[in-house]
Design brief:
The protein is of the alpha+beta class and about 325 residues long. It is built from 9 helices and 16 strands. It has 2 domains: about 190 residues, Ribonuclease Z/Hydroxyacylglutathione hydrolase-like (Metallo-beta-lactamase, Chain A), CATH 3.60.15.10; about 90 residues, no CATH class. Strand 12 and strand 13 form a beta hairpin. Helix 5 crosses helix 7 and helix 6 crosses helix 7.
Length: about 325
């Protein structure tokens, strides 16, 4: 797949993307977020709409307020409630008094959108397109730009710089396939994703992402036909990651594929396994950025998932 790269963007600056649309890149770069989360400002007749306020970072909130200037921020719209997109919401809503919109059934226990959106609903010219898979509450937003045509704010479902992690139970590979197939049936000319630069020829990448997943699934199934595997064993066999964050991400994707195959009756779980690998532990020195987004307890749960063993259904 031909993913895109870009130089590190300036921080605290509203970067013009398309007429009436600006991007501010949050200060949360990592192997999982590229240069950081994209927050978009979209100009409308009554003021600005913010798409994805970004991580819980006072500097990023201040950047957004400063970028808005004397234009009122009327609404904040969420593509999904992962912390790198949702975290700044309380502070930005308090600072601007903006109305808040998100998918009608939030994936967060501590948040219910005051203005719930369903597939097909429209707000300020943004039409919600339900695209679960990366996240259970993921919405993309279709929008028309004069002189450009139909574009899609694609959140983390499709990004120009990398494929998306699908981490159960919030992530679901069955839903992810269906959402990619749905986008293949659309005619949007550009995608503005949750991380990375603008994506041209988006349907080409969507097709490549879907084929990549199908190829990975076929490889996983071929391996399970040979022997039973724990999630961790199979992820190591396929990915050979060394960074613990990428290692866990690989395990989550493998688990999502296995659960899809289980849903389809092709494989089944055969119990757990004892933890044997010497590096299967939670690092005591989690980087501060990681601690903001995922707790050690959550990582422990992921490592427990990594011990789940799968076999071919008979």
């Amino acid at each position: 797949m031909a993913f895109l790269t870009e130089d590190e963007p300036p921080r605290g600056v509203a970067l013009p993307v398309l007429p009436g649309i600006w991007r501010l890149v949050a200060r949360n770069p990592s192997v999982m977020t590229y240069h950081g989360t994209n927050t978009y400002l979209v100009e409308g007749d009554d003021g600005l709409t913010v798409i994805d306020p970004g991580p819980a970072d006072e500097a990023h909130v201040a950047d957004l307020v400063r970028a808005a200037g004397d234009r009122p921020v009327r609404r904040i719209v969420l593509t999904h409630t992962h912390s790198d997109h949702y975290g700044a919401l309380p502070a930005l809503a308090a600072a601007t008094g903006a109305a808040v919109y998100g998918y009608k059934k939030s994936a967060r226990r501590d948040f219910t959108p005051p203005n719930p959106l369903d597939d097909g609903d429209e707000v300020a010219g943004l039409k919600a397109v339900f695209t679960p898979g990366h996240a259970a509450d993921h919405l993309s937003f279709a929008f028309g730009v004069p002189g450009t045509g139909k574009i899609l704010f694609s959140g983390d479902h499709v990004m120009s710089w990398s494929s998306s992690i699908v981490s159960p139970p919030d992530g679901d590979m069955v839903a992810y396939y269906k959402s990619l197939e749905r986008l293949l049936g659309r005619d949007d000319v550009l995608y503005l994703g949750g991380h990375g630069p603008l994506l041209t020829e988006p349907r080409r990448l969507v097709g490549e992402l879907l084929e990549h997943r199908k190829t990975r699934e076929a490889t996983i199934l071929a391996a399970v036909k040979e022997r039973d595997w724990t999630v961790a064993e199979l992820a190591e066999h396929l990915y050979h990651k060394t960074d613990y964050r990428l290692k866990i991400a690989a395990q989550r994707n493998v688990l999502a594929h296995l659960l899809k195959l289980e849903f389809e009756g092709i494989v089944r779980q055969a119990g757990g396994a004892t933890r044997g690998a010497p590096d299967d532990h939670v690092p005591d020195d989690l980087p501060p950025a990681d601690e903001k987004f995922v707790s050690k307890r959550e990582i422990e749960g992921m490592l427990t998932d990594a011990e789940r063993r799968f076999v071919l259904s008979r």
